[in-house]
Amino acid sequence: MLLRRISRHVTEQNWFAVGIDFLIVVVGVFVGIQVSNWNNERAERHHEQELLARLYEDFVESIKGQQRDIAFLNQQFSDQALILKSLADCDVAPNDSVAFQRGVVTLGYINPPRFFRRTVDELASAGKMNVIQNKAIRDKLAAMVALAEWRRDGYDGTARVTEHHRFIVEEKVHYNLAKTHSDKFLGEFFAVVFDIESLCLEPSITSAVSAVSQMTEERKRAYRVILEDYQEFLPLVAQELQDRWQTVISEPVP
Are 116 and 65 in contact (CB under 8 A)? Predict the structure, then answer.
């Protein structure tokens, strides 16, 4: 209808009316573009809100996993200290036997850093990191991803070294598959049969346990830094959700 009217006005050489018609067209196109942009912006901001909420959930899980791993490393380090003392004394107190066996079973068991990265991978694969408008959140997230990946890249080397030392110890003990002990981290684990008087005469055993203990302590320190970063990140996300969308996170930082 509009085109017919413009054609008629041109035929009649009513240039004022033609100008009005073109103005209507331009205004209509402009309004249409603005409405489309507004709808797209609203959809993107809604998507951002969902992503931030999911990031919060992901890092809650990452924190819980990292806290558990650090607690496990603390137990391992304590058991390794007990093994080293027992080797130095050439004796294992009856009350320390289970912890000594657990220390042998878990010698060198070190997990890579915990990073529940469902939402991060989704953002990276889609190239949409900039959907998150808050630069402080983007920068913190990028730094945490880089740190966790750097530590994960170094994990394989650490695992190979600890595995070597573990083999040295395992050559001098054996497992009793008919007997188990219970542990809060391992559940049930097989009993270890050992002769402390023979073990304490083997300098390689002490060296192997000492080397693994050093790497256990190094990983504890590294993972505490990662955990602190995770814990600092959550309040940033929670504040952003509250300030922009009035979304209150009820779950506290673990």
Answer: yes
